[in-house]
Amino acid sequence: MKPEDCITRPRDNRIRELNPHLSKVTIFRMKTDTLRNRKINSNKHGFTLIEIMLVIGLMVMLVGLTVYNIDKILGGNKDTIAEMKVKSSFKTPLTTYKIHMGRYPTTAQGLKALLTPPEGGEKRWRGPYINEAGDLLDPWFQDLQYRSPGTNNKSGYDLFSLGEDGTESADDITNW
Fold it and tell me: What integer pLDDT is reported at residue 60 of this predicted model?
């Protein structure tokens, strides 16, 4: 196809209106360049089925490994959280309770005395000393164990978590 053979179309006139110095040859080149670009771009259709299946397979493997190991990833911190709770988180609330009430809560009153006033001590109690009942649980959702006076801390209190096994044993997390 030669530029001379081109039929003038209304679109060509619009191009000439924008730039009146364009010749038929320039307009022809513009058209053929556009057609060439379409041919080049038309060869790029997207991803093949094999590529998509490969990506999906890799994603499934990653999700499977993550789900399988999630307890190892997040579960290892439970001991650290329990130790932090037992050794430092309850120190301030229990000391504040002792300042207000004149003594630590008894073993019978337990840590619940930090949330609700004990019988006979409503006038002096200025709590709650902790935010919610969930604070009284260890990371394994078992009650924290409390003794006052303590068997290991004679002048204070014993606070401990039974750990993952839920029984009093050597692996307990304690404040002594």
Answer: 94
CA atoms of 104 and 129, how far apart (whole Å):
12
Query: Letter for the amino acid at 153?
Result: N
Best CA proximity match to 149, nearest among 114, 104, 118, 112: 104
pTM of the model: 0.55
Do the Cβ atoms of 163 and 147 come closer than 8 Å? no
Predicted pLDDT at 165: 82
User: Strand, coil or helix: what is 115?
Assistant: coil
Q: Are strands 173-174 and 145-147 parallel, antiparallel or unpaired?
A: unpaired
The DSSP symbol for 86 reads: I
CB-based contact 129:114 (threshold 8 Å): yes
* Residue carrying structure tokens 């001379």: 4
CA distance 16 to 91: 86
Residues of the chain with pLDDT under 70: 1-45, 71-76
Tokens of 156: 């204070």
In 3D space, the residue among 79, 108, 103, 104 whose CA is nearest the CA of residue 172 turns out to be: 79
Tokens of 81: 């959280």
Give the number of C-alpha atoms closer than 13 A to the C-alpha of residue 53, restricted to the C-beta side: 3
SS3 content of the chain, % helix, strand, coil (to 5): 50, 5, 45
